[in-house]
Amino acid sequence: MEDITDSIVKAIRQDVLWMQTLVYVVEKLQNNGYTISFWENEENWAIMLRNDSVIGYMWKKYPLVFIKSPYNDAIKELLQEEQPVVFIDVNDVTEKAFVIDYRVLKDYIEYGLADDGFSAEDFWFVTNT
Prior knowledge:
By secondary structure, this protein is α/β, with parallel strands linked by helices. It is built from five helices and seven strands.
């Protein structure tokens, strides 16, 4: 299991206007062949798709992206001009590969993730309200 606490803290501590930049990022990804599912004012995450398959999640609140390995380099290259984004590489969005330290993140993430491991999809689900 990979502890992603530090990555989440790094994204939270970025001093950027991420929510304003997200609209531009979504447009840029869409213009490069990615489908983005994002219900503004209803969801905290944008779902990134390629050929109708989920390839990652982009957090609205903080510059954090979970992205499947085969797309990691391409997405990073597209977003390199944007404000700093923290990327967490995943083999599959449903693979239970991560843990966090709730003591460090208690002010940002509600309990609900399994202590013995969770997936990017689980993280998306728990933090999407």
